[in-house]
Amino acid sequence: MAAEVEERGPIPNLALNAILIPVFEETASDHRVDRTIIDQIQTVFQKAELQAPGISQDFVSAVLKQESIPHNMNEILLLLSAREIDGLSIDRPEQGFQTLNKNAQTLKRILCKIPNEIHDRTKFLQTIKEIASAIKLLLDSVNDVLKNYTSTGRMLEHKRNLEFHKKEFVKYSRSFSDTLKRYFKDSKANSVYLSANKLISQTNSIIQEFQRAVRDY
């Protein structure tokens, strides 16, 4: 794996969700470890992300550099971001929300294939088609929930924020498409990894905003 090339700074929450939280969960499953302490550490990182977005990525990168481990942080994050995390799904039984969860996870899973397929043109072109289809399905499910579940939780109160996150997702989807076009001219794979990570981050943001919207107070 090539040495890391930083581009435009860390992505908020992505390293926390893709790397640190799974590590915390695995550590907490060890009966020798006090779960309360692990939860406290996770809470500290979550609060730190609110104060300094992307600090988890800086932390992980600093550890790898300290140990002189060659790495590409964008590639690592992309490969690991397909993991299913309890905190990144909408806890509602209705079919619309379940479909939204499924489509969000599907998109992330396909995006995470990029590092392993980007240098095989035939496979990569097929993956690009799958990504385009997954983006459409996710947007369709977002629109379905916005239209048909307005009385659930506090959906109406959060409608403006939900529409904002949807627009941001569309913006980053278009940016990802533009990055792919440039890749076939300049072959800069790291730019594709970074753009894919930003799209994953926006996907997570949509799910988290829906979580807040349907939460019972």
From TrEMBL:
It is found in: Cell membrane; Cytoplasm. Its main location: membrane. It is a peripheral membrane protein. The keyword S-adenosyl-L-methionine does not apply. Keywords: Cell membrane, Cytoplasm, Membrane. GO terms for biological process: regulation of Golgi organization. Belongs to the PDCD10 family. This is Programmed cell death 10. The lineage of its organism: Eukaryota, Metazoa, Cnidaria, Anthozoa, Octocorallia.
